[in-house]
Amino acid sequence: MAGYNGCVNGGGYGFKIPEIQFTKLFIDGNFVDSVSGGLGLPSFLILLNEWRASSFIPMIYFTVPILWSPLGDDSLGKTFETRDPRNEEVIARVAEGSKEDIDLAVKAARKSFDHGTWPRMSGYERGRVMMKFAKLIEDHIDELAVIDSLNCGKLLRFTKKNEIPAGVHILRYYAGAADKIHGDTLKLSGEFHGYTLKEPIGVVGHIVPWNFPTPLLFLKVSPSLAAGCTMVVKPAEQTPLSALYYAHLAKLAGIPDGVINVVTGFGATAGAALCSHMDVDKISFTGSTAVGRLVMEAAAKSNLKHVTLELGGKSPVIVFDDADVDIAVSMAHNATFFNKGEFCASGSRIYVQEKIYDEFLKKSVELAKSTVIGDPFDPEVQQGPQIDKKQFDKILGYIEYGKNEGANLLTGGKSYGNKGYYIEPTIFTDVQENMKIAQDEIFGPVMALMKFKTIEEAIEKANATSYGLVAGIITKDLNIANRVSRSVRAGTVWINCYFVLDPSCPFGGYKMSGFGKCQGMEALDEYLQVKSVITPIYSSPWL
Ligand code: NAI
Ligand code: MG
To answer: Which residues form the Aldehyde dehydrogenase domain (predicted)?
Structure first.
């Protein structure tokens, strides 16, 4: 595993690691430092302010530290480190936005929504600009792929061939939709003419997680741009780099200043400020269930802004006796271990019917053992490092739970190498429904393999979770496929395939996996609101 500093030529894998150009906040069309200074003074100021507010200390005491702040360790604004999960080394320091920066970004977005050109230009024109944006991303695909791989531990061949192109595809899909937004003509029961208008919802806050920095960003930004909204994007603190690059390309493409603002920083500060902001009309959040609850709470306690939530999953893959075992093993392997298991749609509960269970288990273990773990820039590698220490510790903690609760560890179960956040693909059997490893989202390379007898049992077990994001079914029997796909409470069902995501195909959860769709024309509706317009009609020949 090559170290970042030692491999500016890409560690001999035939690519260059680019210089990181964009590390500042992007507000109102400009890259700017965060308002707060270095030396941790912002938090000190906030604490002092709270203390002052609660203890009636005169303002003069409060103003003194402000005079100090330009003398901090980084007088150009507070920053935080972003790291390379291969070796834990710092890639760059990035501006750390706080509430004050969110206020400035929302102000810019508000101004451009209330008075700017973007919401007022035709959908056709917006679509043309978005197409230009997509082309610029394609022109920079090599650099963007390296940035996401470096920041997130993703296989380079995958970011280059799939993830950045997926972002472009999503953007083009919604660019094409921008001039196809329309309401209905209504038949009212009296002498009235009625119609609906679909209007942009306003200023949107997008809170993005770290597991797919590019596709998830474009799943949010693209439909909201097409709808005519303006926005503040808060990327995950682990993966801030590509979002800033996209802001730069958006400006080059001609997206007006203030339409897309990017505030990098932490969830509890920048993210929370966005969710509580009185001038934000909607939050689109993807991340943990726990934070999803906080987002809704903040929306409820502030201005009742709209919310869509794409949360976790504990998705089942159900393999029936008639399946081709080799194909099924490979699909289940991919469902669990793809992207190191850091995928909301991961299939981490694998239910296999009893007749093929033993063969399935043996072949699954062989496949897991053959996985090449290592530097995601190496084209031979199949699994890179987990995103960060916190996630690495969380996954290893769940593996311990599994062992302690009596599940049978068949393979893996340990970290790999002595540097970076690598974990071996892990398979447990004898997993009971009530065990933590069968209930909680682990978000790592851990498979729970379970046996079932009847179709009824499979349906019951598949639904025995608080989540409902996706489900997989592997069978050649159309009647089984039809029955199970209608019985499973999940927002997406994949039959004899897995992870087939397409911009035209609505995606989003049932139950505690959230609500509101991304992808498809449904996602456009998440950024529009319907206005009914009614006017009397006189002497019409019909109603
Ligand atoms: P998280 O939910 O804390 O972070 C996701 C995003 O929310 C980040 O941009 C973060 O800065 C922001 N955030 C955090 N606290 C916030 C707050 N109070 N207000 C507003 N925004 C806030 O997820 P985390 O801690 O990175 O991962 C924990 C677990 O969440 C993972 O192990 C996994 O199980 C799940 N997860 C699910 C994802 C999905 O695709 N549905 C993506 C990432 C994590
Ligand atoms: Mg968190």
So the answer is: 78-533
